[in-house]
Structures are given as C-alpha cells and as structure tokens.
Amino acid sequence: MKAVHAQNPAMKGSGRHRGIGGAASRRRAPVRLKTARGRKISSTLWLSRQLNDPYVAAAAAEGFRSRAAYKLLQLDEKFRLLRPGLRVVDLGAAPGGWSQVAARKTGLGKNPRARLVAMDLLKMDPIPGAVVLQGDFTGEDAPERIKKALDGRAGLVLSDMAASATGHKGTDHLRILALAELAHAFASEVLDKDGAFVCKLFQGGGEGAFMKSLKASFAEVRYAKPTASRGESAETYLVARGFRG
Ligand SMILES: C[S@@+](CC[C@H](N)C(=O)[O-])C[C@H]1O[C@@H](n2cnc3c(N)ncnc32)[C@H](O)[C@@H]1O
Question: Which one, of 153, 148, 228, 146, lies nearest residue 182 by Cα?
Fold first, then answer.
C-alpha cells in the first residue's frame, strides 16, 4: 500500500484538495452496462455503480480492502483523529479498510506505543501488528475481549458498524443507533481523557438523546459526511473529540 496521505480524496468543502486525488481523481469514461438477460435491474445498477465509482477503483489501485478506507482518510483530514503511537479500537472493522488506514497512520508495528484492536462479526484477514477479533460486539463478552486485547486505554474508538439493511429506513436508523449507543458506552470505559470517538449513523431523527449523551461526554461533537460516503445514502458520521474522562 502506498503512503495513505498521497491519495486522500477531499472532504467536502475542506479546500485542502481540488477534487479527488491520485487514483480516485483520474476521470475515466463511464462504463455502460447492457442489461444482461437473467440479471436483475438492481444487480445491474449495483454493478454499474461499482464500475463507475472512483473510490472503488482507487481502493483497488492502492491496496485498500474497501472503498470505506477513504471515508476514514477524509474524516482524519478534517478532524485530525489519527497520529503516530495512537491506540485505536475499530468496531465493525471487516473487511479492514479503516484498520489499514489506522495501522498506517499510527505506525503500527513500528511505533511501540501504537496498538490496534479490531472486531467484526465476520472473519477478517489479519492486519500486521493488530489484534483482530471475530465476534458480535453486542455480545456480553465482547467488551471484555476487546479490553483484554487492548491492555490499557485507547485514544480513539471507531465504529463503522452497521447491520445488514432491512430496506425500512426507520428500522435501519434505530438498529444503527443502538449499535452506536453501545459503542459510545464502551468508548466511555476505555478512552483516555481527550480521546475521540467516531460512529456511523443513518439519518432518521431519533438521535436526540444520543447526541445529548455524547455532548455530555465530549467537548465537541460534529456531524460529518465525507465525500466518499455516497450522496444518496442516509449514512453520516458523528465525530466526538475531547473526551471529558
Ligand atoms: C460498513 S462495514 C465496515 C467497513 C470497514 N470500516 C472497512 O473499512 O472495511 C460494517 C461492518 O459492521 C459489522 N457489524 C455489524 N454489526 C456488528 C456487530 N454487532 N458486531 C460486530 N460487527 C458488526 C458488519 O459485519 C460489517 O462488516
């Protein structure tokens, strides 16, 4: 994988980059698909979107396991979340794009202070230097397993967890909110003072109480929609910094 900062596409309005950088920025002629017999319209649309997505192409060119890597790069560009020697927990980590970015930016394996513990329901390929746990974060034993692997406190807790979409907006919103609340409760147990927490949400209007509890634990809480997050998706991120301890 090349230096992660070299290909970091822009956060909307950050002004740091003009458009998407490197591999993601090269404009390619759009790939048009003929509707194949036997392929559902939804599959054709998905395939067409994948083939024409600059972040999918960039991730493949740069060795990232997922296009999601660019979301964390863009959040980091804007909020300065990652630094050498940081101890990080990555929840909902598979296939591992965010973990790859965190590993590179913290100097995992080279910087003796850096640590990365990743968890996902799904099996995930190893990340050199990281502890990768397979398990359900909502399971009773999950927090203890992560704490044991972390062996100390963390400077950053990330949650990109999302259950499979049901297609019902309200249900998906409530389900991801429940995961984010659990992740916040866990972060409150392991974060260093001044640490940061990032979680994914699907917009839906039910996050008032959650925002309130985040604001009680952190000095600053902001919504962020990285450019790599598809515009048509209800996905958004909450970035909380300055854990009060
Ligand atoms: C959008 S993907 C994460 C992508 C990842 N950040 C990356 O960069 O490759 C969401 C992940 O959340 C995981 N997930 C959902 N519910 C979970 C749970 N209860 N415990 C652990 N992982 C969960 C899913 O298995 C899925 O891999």
Answer: 146
